[in-house]
Specification:
Blueprint: H1 16-42, H2 47-68, H3 72-98, H4 119-133, H5 136-145
């Protein structure tokens, strides 16, 4: 027999969580606009760099939507998106320093996001911290460990 579903009435994000989601939304729009223009105007000039810009745009859109939701599945999607983002920033950042010939034009993640004041490097770290701190299971454990009055 299935248990009745209890609606989750919690708001998706509080305080700094909303600022984080806003930042992801801004980067989703910026990366999408940049990659769209690059791919339409100059796709043959730097296909790898512009393709990575488009990929980063997709990651930012997915992360924004997933972080804004409170459900278990969307939290998993958010974890995946943020970890893919961090891996991308670190990999592309390192490659753009060691092998600049691979990136004749910058991507959002080139030089660890230096074109965006390194926000692409800091953003996934903040996303990981927020996801960990706001995890319902962690919050439940903390609440249960508090002495009752």
């Amino acid at each position: 027999m299935t248990q009745p579903q209890i609606p989750d009435t919690r708001r998706p994000a509080y305080g700094l969580g909303r600022v984080l989601i806003l930042m992801y939304g801004i980067f989703a729009l910026a990366a999408t606009a940049r990659s769209t223009v690059q791919l339409i105007r100059d796709a043959e000039a730097a296909p790898v760099a512009y393709g990575l810009s488009a990929f980063s745009a997709v990651v930012y859109v997915v992360a924004t939507v997933a972080l804004a939701h409170n459900g278990r599945r969307m939290r998993r999607v958010a974890w995946t998106a943020v970890l893919v983002e961090l891996t991308g920033v670190l990999t592309v950042g390192a490659l753009s320093i060691m092998r600049p010939d691979l990136f004749p034009d910058e991507t959002v993640w080139s030089l660890f996001g230096s074109g965006y004041f390194h926000v692409p490097l800091v953003l996934p770290v903040l996303g990981i911290i927020w996801l960990w701190r706001s995890a319902p299971s962690r919050i439940d454990r903390l609440a249960e460990s508090q002495p009752r009055a």
